[in-house]
Design a protein that fits this description.
8-stranded antiparallel sheet; 9-stranded mixed sheet; mainly beta
Length: 324
């Protein structure tokens, strides 16, 4: 799954997997030694520019301790459009890609074909196998291949008319991971109704915004017309919850959370197929006893494959007190 707050709004994306034999499915199958630094470039207005190794290590998540950096591929000149910016990642040896996740501006991705000349011409479509991102995804977009493919280059394309182009991250997996959040139904204990102010229209930050891929996401609470937050601070005593359910069982492997959650428990639904998880009693939910957590460009959570029709976060602490 994936959760995201903008700035305190929650967006959730689920990672469902068809697994191969990878020991750590959420870790990229790459090493620094595989990077072809000379051929890894950003192309803007016909000019190719390399980037530095620390930026690539951060963008590709090759070191959990690396500082967060993003790759800026180009910026529009005064009075001129930026146009298309492309990011080509080249590898000294083939890398097997079963799925990938992109953060940042690019909305298109492609893999270098096995019979194409290395490292591939970004302007020649015959060199590349295009990948289509499913709809209803926001800042982190996942695409899953029908079968894993070995390639020596990945090409990301950002169609920009103005401003700057940047790439925050590219996470490559050998396993075929799927974002199943768009197929789910989201529920929450509370949803913030934002009253109109300064000529803005009122708006409700529904849990359903998460599954719709709306970047505003879910917000549990906020200021009322008097400027007050009238719900108690989220805590062990006054927790809140967010739930994602599916009509059919999903085999989940992990979550990606991007928001202000600090402390939470993760439960999965174990009730009968005839029961909507939203209506399930506590005995029909089971706590995940162990999972690995990494706070890096959001929060990555990895656990053993779990087949379920519902996942629930019982949130006991957030960075903003009463607002999740």
């Amino acid at each position: 799954m994936r959760l995201r707050f903008v700035p305190s709004a929650l967006l959730l994306a689920a990672l469902c997997a068809n697994f191969s034999s990878a020991a750590v499915p959420l870790a990229p199958p790459l090493s620094v030694d595989q990077l072809d630094m000379e051929a890894t470039v950003a192309i803007s207005n016909g000019a190719a520019a390399p980037t530095d190794l620390p930026t690539l290590i951060s963008v590709l998540s090759l070191n959990d301790q690396a500082s967060d950096k993003r790759w800026e591929g180009g910026a529009a000149l005064p009075g001129k459009p930026l146009g298309t910016v492309q990011y080509r990642f080249a590898f000294k040896t083939p890398v097997t890609v079963g799925s990938l996740l992109v953060f940042g501006g690019p909305r298109a991705a492609a893999l270098l074909k096995p019979d194409a000349p290395y490292p591939g011409d970004p302007t020649n479509p015959d060199h590349w196998m295009p990948l289509a991102f499913p709809r209803r995804q926001t800042s982190g977009r996942t695409v899953t291949l029908e079968q894993p493919v070995a390639t020596r280059a990945v090409l990301l394309t950002d169609e920009k008319s103005r401003g700057r182009s940047y790439l925050e991250g590219l996470r490559i997996w050998t396993d075929r991971l799927h974002n199943v959040t768009p197929q789910g139904i989201a529920y929450a204990e509370r949803e913030y109704y934002k009253p109109s102010a300064n000529f803005s229209s009122p708006f409700t930050y529904h849990a359903a915004l998460v599954t719709k891929g709306d970047s505003r996401g879910w917000v549990s609470a906020g200021k009322d017309t008097e400027g007050l937050v009238t719900v108690p601070a989220i805590s062990d005593v006054a927790p809140t919850w967010f739930m994602l359910t599916w009509d059919e069982p999903q085999t989940l492997r992990g979550l990606w959370l991007d928001g202000n959650l600090q402390t939470y428990e993760i439960d999965h639904f174990i009730g009968a197929d005839s029961v909507n998880p939203r209506a399930g009693i506590d005995a029909e939910w089971q706590k995940l006893s162990t999972f690995e957590r990494l706070d890096k460009r959001g929060t990555w959570i990895e656990f053993a494959p779990t087949k379920t029709r519902g996942i629930r976060l019982r949130i006991t602490k957030v960075a903003d007190g009463a607002i999740a």
